[in-house]
Amino acid sequence: MTRKNKHILSIALFMAVLVIDQIIKVCVKTGMYLGERIEITSWFSLVFVENNGMAFGWELWGGKLFLTLFRIVAVCLIGWFIYSEIQRRRPTGYIVCLTLIAAGAAGNIIDCLFYGLIFNNPPFPEVADFQPYGYGYGEFLYGRVVDMFYFPLIEWEMPTWMPIYSGQHCVFFSPIFNFADAAISCGIVALLIFYHKIVSRYQFHKD
User: Fold this and answer.
1) What is the DSSP letter of 114?
2) Among 96, 100, 167, 192, which has the highest number of CB atoms less than 10 A from its own CB?
3) How far is residue 169's CA from residue 155's CA, in Å, rounded to a whole number?
4) Annotated catalytic residue: which of 111, 129, 181, 207?
5) How far is CA 40 from CA 43, 150, 175, in A?
């Protein structure tokens, strides 16, 4: 694939991830009340939660403002890195992995930047609605990230004879995440599996 086509593919994939991610988030935000759970199967549910942290609801030292600014800088750096890697004629799949990571991070940035400005925060069990710009629940840069995918693949009860955790209900995969998080994770995993040689032997000079 030519450099031009790789640039087009990267931009198209980036936009596609952003659009899909935002459509899902807006549908959940305006169609479910906070904390609502819709069971699709025994191992997959839609659960509407919001968080101020990183992927899968994890928290980061430094607070909300630091995290949002960190994401913006990171996406800009990754975008520059993707461009430089295309110029170095890296494999198309490698570029796709990097683009998924950048697009996923950008998807969550949109939540942080604008959701606090355009959505209200109604009491349970009402669902959120669009507000005039600037009259939402929060300020610019302080929006909360919307998560919804929950995959409790394996659940079990700890034996009663176990100390400390006796009888505790356990879930194998408990994080609730969104489409952007999934794009980041898929990009990183594929990068490490299929392009670990490039990652481990990366050189800053032109190949």
Assistant:
1) I
2) 100
3) 7
4) 181
5) 8, 10, 17
Alpha-carbon distance of 72 to 49, in angstroms, equals 23
What would the pLDDT profile of 29-43 be if each residue is shown by its tens digit?
999 999 999 999 988
Question: Please, which residues have CB within 8 angstroms of residue 142's CB and are 6 or more apart in sequence?
Answer: 64, 65, 68, 112, 116
Report the candidate in 141, 104, 140, 124 with the shortest Cα–Cα distance to residue 16: 104
CA distances from 161 to 4, 165, 171 (A): 63, 9, 19
Residues 6+ apart with CB under 8 A from 39: 45
Residue-wise pLDDT tens digits, 117-155: 999 999 989 999 999 999 999 999 999 999 999 998 776
CA distances from 49 to 8, 28, 32, 99, 175 (A): 34, 10, 10, 26, 11
149 phi, psi to nearest 5 deg: -85, 125
Report the distance separating Cα 165 and Cα 161, nearest Å.
9
Is 21 marked active-site? Answer: no
Give me 194's structure tokens.
């299929």
